[in-house]
Amino acid sequence: MDNIAEVRNLVFEYKDEETGASARVLDGVSLDVRRGEFLAVLGRNGSGKSTLAKHLNAILTPTSGKVTVDGFDTSDDSKLFDIRRRVGMVFQNPDNQMVATIVEEDVAFAPENLGVPREEIRRRVDEALEIVGMSAFKRHAPHMLSGGQKQRVAIAGALAMRPELLVMDEPTAMLDPSGRAEVIETVKKLNRENGMSVVLITHYMDEAVRADRVIVLDRGRIALEGTPKEVFPQVEKLTALGLDVPQAAYLIYMLNKHGLGLDASALNDEECAAELLRALESRRKGAGEP
Amino acid sequence: MLKDITLGQYFPGDSFIHRLDPRTKILIIIAYVVMVFLIQNFIGYLALALFLALCVAVSGISPKYLIRGLKPILVFIVFTGIFNLFLTPGEEIWRWGFLKITVEGVRFAAFMVLRLIFLILGTSLLTLTTSPIALTDGMERLLSPFKKVHLPSHEIAMMMTIALRFIPTLLDETDKIMKAQSARGASIDSGGIFSRAKAMVPILIPLFISAFRRADELATAMECRCYRGGEGRTRLYELKFGAVDVLGWIYMAVLLAAVIAINMIFGKF
User: Is A234 domain-assigned?
Assistant: First the structure.
């Protein structure tokens, strides 16, 4: 199987208990998460990003449509823990996902729940903390750590399950810039070196740029899909969807508006500078100067 | 004001007392509390004081720090002493108006004060030498036989762990809310007792709302990590009784025997 998760025609309606009115949060979403890929999901507030994430490990189940994880249907209650152990989740607020008063005990929480033997738990905890670079803090109390460190511990807590997919719901939203960089580097490294499949839900464009593939959600539907180089040059469309555009892409868009004819696939500073340089040089040659 | 809360304060160490299994320590503390109330004369308290002093010396905890733990309940101790001193009926030795001191009153007051002091010192020594997580673990294991009568021992221990985990988080949050409300002109530290109590409302309401939201998110996060109650759970650290525990039990048994013997020989003071 090439896909770790498959979502088909997913519809999710949220019913208000008091008024009886129902609101459609996801309206026919279909997507695949390929093994080993780094998929970013973008969308403004209320676009259904978090709801989609919660469908990937059966915290929510579809109103209609189907979600399968590693071949298991999330609507099948008997497979609940087979699904959850395959999908590690990391949420926005690091304080609200830690259970224990000591870092290593918190990382051990999931394997303890799964009934993993003690020596194996030890191995997994040490390995997970090593991967996120927090081994030196294993006897620390979580509340003494910085936001970025806490979030790395939360990632380690998910990794200790040995999941096949890591789903992160705006893991950097509450962090300062250095904490954000820490977390994104860790995730990128996990994806590249350990081949972990990652679904990153974010509203930071510079994080999404580093993904293999980007999906933009709008009002419960997929509005755009493709590689970052395909998605981000569509500046007008992204702006209409209420999203920012990476600065490099925006600069090239503005220059092209004035007829510079640059390659719009540049997404970071280096690529943008190189493209500008190339354009300047070809223009000089075209003008026949020495 | 929030800095003074030292609940669950723990001093890591590697002393004999630190190395005792938490179950042993909890059982010893229970026996100790029973003894505190069992003792009927001052010689018994002397024996208990010696026992406690030895424990403190072995634990490496500064006695000064331990005694400072009495400070928050000093008022309570003094009040108990005075109350018993003046209100116990019996053989009068001094009288002024309606106030009278009796022989029984003096003895009873001294006993009550000693009991309180011994209780606080003993339990502080337990929490100072045992990590909260070990304590809850020990509690869970000790209570597990009562599962047969449907006592949710795992759930109780889990609740205690989570409560301990969130104490610093919620204290931080309270501090933030207090600052936010003072910045908007709320006066928290001034006025009489009623206006102060009223001033707590704008602090407590946001705190409660946030605590409920945190609880909801934590529950989801726990489910994501395959939590399904205590059934079939393994532990990173299994509790194991060792040679030190046997020594601990012997020590306790000797003391218990001594206290009973002292009671029988010297009788009621």
Answer: no
